[in-house]
Amino acid sequence: MATKVFPGQSKVICLHDDTSYAYVHLAASDSKPTFLLLHGFPSSSYDWRHQLSALAAAGYGVLAPDLLGYGATDKPVEVEKYSFKRMGDHMAGILKNEKLGKVIGVGHDWGSGLLTYMAVYQSELFLALAFLSAGYVDPGTIYAIDAMNAATEKAFGYPCFGYWPLFGSVEGAKLLDQHAGAVTSLLYPAEPESWKTDLGPLDAARSWIVADSKAPLPSWLTPEEAATHESIIAHGGYTGPLNWYKCAMQGVNSTDASGLSDERKRIDIPTLLVVGERDAITRLEIHEAGTKARTSNLRVERLDCGHWPQLEKKDELTTVLQSFAVEVADPVQSK
Questions:
Q1: Surface-to-core class of residue 64, CB atoms within 10 Å of its CB (0-12 exposed, 13-18 middle, 19+ buried)
Q2: CB-based contacts of 313-317 (< 8 A; 24+ apart in sequence)
Q3: Cis before residue 42, ω within 30 degrees of 0?
Q4: Do the beta carbons of residue 113 and residue 245 sit within 8 Å?
Q5: What's the pLDDT score for residue 335?
Q6: DSSP string, 89-133
């Protein structure tokens, strides 16, 4: 979590609604922009460790919160408190507290969903946007899981959302807490293609976790890093992280977005989409098409990796982010 993993670089803030957030903030130098790094599931600011050091060393500012339900940030049990719109207001409060101007928003996985809502409702906060693995998440999305599984099985030969019923269930958090090592092994795989059999199909994740299955760690995640990750998640468990899924499945986010026009949903500022060519769940075919449909100034980068570009391809991703920052800060010079 931010306060323990990054001592001396982290802060805790209590916002207007008494919600407390922990975050890492390293100030920019040389008038360079700041990156707002929004992690996904099941992560924390710790998953940005490589980008925090590399971007800061290059003079960029970085602000990486432990998002709601994670790390040293509050972990409410009420599902509705995990709405993107509410959490977006929280992010705006942190940026205001740090007296930051327009930032480059970066979202990974569920962080991309949060970033989308912020871009729609609080566009004045952003110089540019970068979506990793998951692209633009349409604010009106209805998560009809059975239909989504049927559609992805038809398109790719296997369903991509078979783990969602477990994650949205009453017993899901307890089961994941009891088998934390198996969850880490499943979600941070050495072979990204394993998700086609072990995560995507219905009940595959449940079977893996109940059996307390383990696989060798990938080369990009050391045993010490895996242990740190698990200790961060253990501080509160999986109830908060799974509430992000429940909030989406229960229609809280789509209700918040009801009435938004297509014009309002469109993004015209510079946008970067980084996808993994071997990501078997957040498939690039889906996220490239969805992001292209809602943006007018899009750059797409494909990396030879699975779902975790910030870990699997840390140096390549940092290079891409820096080049994107140059483009948006000085578009004439970058050409």
A1: buried
A2: 314/50, 314/51, 314/54, 314/220, 315/50, 315/54, 317/51, 317/132, 317/274
A3: yes
A4: no
A5: 45
A6: HHHHHHHHHTT--SEEEEEETHHHHHHHHHHHH-GGGEEEEEEES
**pLDDT tens-digit map of 113-171:** 999 999 999 999 999 999 999 999 999 888 999 999 999 999 999 999 999 999 999 99
Distances, alpha carbon 130 to alpha carbons 321, 324, 332, in Å: 8, 9, 20
Helix (H) or strand (E) holding 140: none
In 3D space, the residue among 248, 6, 3 whose CA is nearest the CA of residue 114 turns out to be: 248
Nearest to 138 by CA among 250, 35, 260: 260
Distance separating alpha carbons of residues 44 and 22, to the nearest angstrom: 10
Instruction: Please say whether the beta carbons of 242 and 172 come within 8 A.
Output: yes
pLDDT digits (tens, 9 = 90+) for 263-282: 999 999 999 999 999 999 99
* pLDDT for 88 beyond 50: yes
Q: H or E segment at 153?
A: helix 145-156
